């Protein structure tokens, strides 16, 4: 027996010595290959491109890694304690490796027969994240240990923790805890509470498995484990533990499976314009350098533009009636199974901000129950679905009927955000853009209803017929030819034969077929009488009119020199139109829109500043200041007594503008300004179709403009434009020396008032 025991002990000793020798050889082989870890102090991570409003509110971030670096002293103590409780509570006691932890991990690996895992200290995790792959092998573990020992030798504990806090991956493209705090809780790191710190500290172990958007139950269990560790280690009291254990966490909206970059101000279309511009200058480095771009938009004005546009589209859509459910899924009678099916289906259906997708689960006489695939159902009163009531009827075809399993949309009620009403995603679209008139700075821009579902930017990309919104420029050309606002022009019908139109008979009409006979040019603009505009173009010639409007930035090739130019039959973008109106507002200077003010590097050093084209330089003058003033006076009358008189609700005497509606109400416009700010709204369908009988720019585009300007004008003093020298006043008329009444300009085509003219 003693002989066998001796043999066993000898073999064991030999085995241990052999193992030690092998490990020593491996360590000796690996050590020379260890990189110089002191360079970690010079580490510069890939930093995303950040885009800000002019007043410092972040609107977007572009980059493969979402980061925000913080210094150790900026990290809340509760987060540091939570991280240590979750990952390495002996961090400040060991020298990079925790023997107790490694032994526990080794025993566990042997018992489970798994590869090397666990037992990693924070220092070892830093080593792995910066230098090693994620492959789980014993050789990699040895390198991890050696690197950890070297890191501890060269760096302080605070430096190691700072690297960890800024580098660790926490899901949803978030690298570092500062970025994660913004992504999950929409908070700066310094404002998180104990429960939120515990949730974040639980993520490094398995960012996907413990992600609250992926699996809230599993994430909560992990968070409560961290809270328990905090209590066990004496970092929080029993009272704090109980309070934080039961605290309901409020996560950032719009993340989860339908993750989008949600920021306090929605400016996705402009952010994409910025990204493209910066990329054209910096290339692929755009997403790595940590550049911060300050745009020209103002947060409050952008927010107002976004809200006004969505409100206007939804109101129009609701008036046109409900179109039916978006789809249907068959639901089990078992509530849990049904809820799971709903959650699975809606995971592939995107919300549109506060317009939420849900599934009808129960229809009763006085209420409708819908589900988002969550624990709490949502109750809609019958009055909340009133505009779709017919779709509950059995007489409605089954495919369009609202029934159990129907996929529908709801949104918060205006009077009570905790209650919901039925709605739908609109088919119509709109755009709004506002400029600062003295330098072309874009103050607000919304290129469509929902950027995430349709990235088409209607402000810059949609060339549409401007309709009557082009008339101020036609009338400006007439002023340059010696006409005055008091020139009398015939408003009776005209016809154009094929020889003058290029092959087709053209019989233009006034809106509502209302013809006023001889009227002043000013009244014609106020009431938007088409026949007057046509006669002006005939008189000054289409080529002259085309040349004149091109000074404002309208492209000649898209606005051919035809008589129909008088009625806006060419094509322009909302951005071009707002620039044109800005030139009238600023006294006749060319307006070049711009949207980037400056670019800073990650340290805050100025990289580039963009200089705008300022109004006031006579080298950029495009029209006579007297004509700009007279046009302003005429456009003010449009607001005071004409097609834009709805804008009088703003109770401002310094507004001017013009409505525009194209044939068959395919496009609806309003372009207007207060002398410091100009704005244009467009309304229509991406695939051109009628907006409906009797729809006009005044009816659907102007209300959006009013809602937007209501917010803007709060910070704009009333401004009366100074009268330039050379204006001659006769009674209530405005003239220049060149436009004083004479036989040439006193009237146009008023001799044969009883004859319909043919051109």
CATH superfamily of the domain at 58-258: Biosynthetic peptidoglycan transglycosylase-like
Mean pLDDT: 88
Shape: elongated
CATH topology of the domain at 58-258: Penicillin binding protein transpeptidase fold
Rg, please? 35 Å
- Helix content percent band: 25-40%
Major beta-sheet overview: 6 strands, antiparallel
Overall SS class: alpha+beta
Strand content: 5-15%
Count helical runs: 21
Low-confidence stretches: 18-33, 255-261
- Look at the structure and give the CATH class of the domain at 58-258: Mainly Alpha
Q: How widely separated are the two ends? A: 127 Å
In the CATH hierarchy, the architecture of the domain at 58-258 is Orthogonal Bundle
Give a count of the beta strands, DSSP E runs of length 2 or more: 25
What does this structure look like?
The chain is an alpha+beta fold and 759 residues long. Among the domains are: 58-258, Biosynthetic peptidoglycan transglycosylase-like (Penicillin binding protein transpeptidase fold, Orthogonal Bundle), CATH 1.10.3810.10; 324-423, Nucleic acid-binding proteins (OB fold (Dihydrolipoamide Acetyltransferase, E2P)). It has 21 helices and 25 strands. Strands 6, 7, 8, 9, 10 and 11 form a six-stranded antiparallel sheet that branches. A hairpin with a 2-residue loop joins β22 (728-730) and β23. α2 (77-87) runs parallel beside α8 (194-201), α14 crosses α17 (530-540) and α14 packs across α20 (625-641). The longest helix has 29 residues, at 2-30. The relative contact order is 0.09.
